[in-house]
Amino acid sequence: MGYPTTLALALTFLLIGLSNHIYSCDALASISKSSRTKKDGFSQHWNNNNNNNNNKDPTDDNSIITKAILKDLHPHPHQLEQETSRFPHDKNTPPYLAMITTRNACDSATNLEQACWALEQTLQTSKVDLLVVRCTPTTADPDLVLELIQHLVELVADHDTAIIVHQDWWRHAIKAQAHGIHIKEDHWDVCAEIKNAYLEAQLPPPLLGATSHSLESALQAMAFMKQVDISDSAESDAQTPSQRQQLSLPHMGWDYLFVGSCYFSGASHPEKTILEGPGLPGRVVAALQQHEPKVPVFAIGGIEAENCREPIQLGAHGVTVLRSVLQSEDPAQSLTDIWSQLHTKS
Prior knowledge:
Layout: H1 3-53, E1 96-100, H2 109-123, E2 130-133, H3 142-155, E3 162-166, H4 170-176, E4 180-183, H5 191-200, E5 207-212, H6 215-226, H7 241-244, E6 256-259, H8 280-288, E7 297-299, H9 309-313, E8 318-321, H10 323-326, H11 331-342
Parallel strand pairs: 1-2, 1-8, 2-3, 3-4, 4-5, 5-6, 6-7, 7-8
């Protein structure tokens, strides 16, 4: 092979090598650019959200930190697509089914284990719309209460069930990122503090629910939150100036009401000799039609499979169960039986 031929071959190989090197660099640059684009896209999305929210009212639901930034936290059932955090969820339709934990669920580790087993069985049915954690403050172990709330929030991460915590443990609710707080009857003045605490913790606004044992109490609760003059209702006996006082909390409202007691349960209110009855929730619904027709009203007190349909037929939007399900030998089946009764067309 002559010198010119050798030189030509050498130049050819050199050109091929340079071409491959340039191609490899271009490929790496393309991959790097693609990677940056994905990362920058996420950052840009968050920055755009921040820029858009700078001038917004902090109580505006759209200004709440999104699911993407809180990815390491427990999910909220109403997240990026529906940050308003209102109940019921769009996919849920009445009659609704709510559940309350037993008061002694966190009195001991043994009680907690038993409670978790029953709650897990029922939540796996995906038939519970709302679950309220209620533990006696004087006997419950605070650490066990927090553990229970955290466990329940994790259990419903992929469901539409809202985890609500009784007012006594609202600070635990924020730590566990529960979805809302249930307020005691006539203790509504704590709502503003609770909502502000959720906002400060950069959590979606909490669901707020209350219990009422009379039509008057339900109307007073609505008046407190929504500036409804309870004297407007023909069924209300509230006639004193203080009862007619319109109290206002901006950007606040009830997401549901528990109304009862409908039937004797033998535990919740053993002192009662006369019950409000299964018709009271329906009367509350009728009285609220003018002001708050979208607030779900749940019947509560002694609800079981044999009687759960009566409050619904009398106007309630849903029922709340406790011992008839959680203290049964087969909680999931007991809950399913009640759910089936609620959805049976007569």
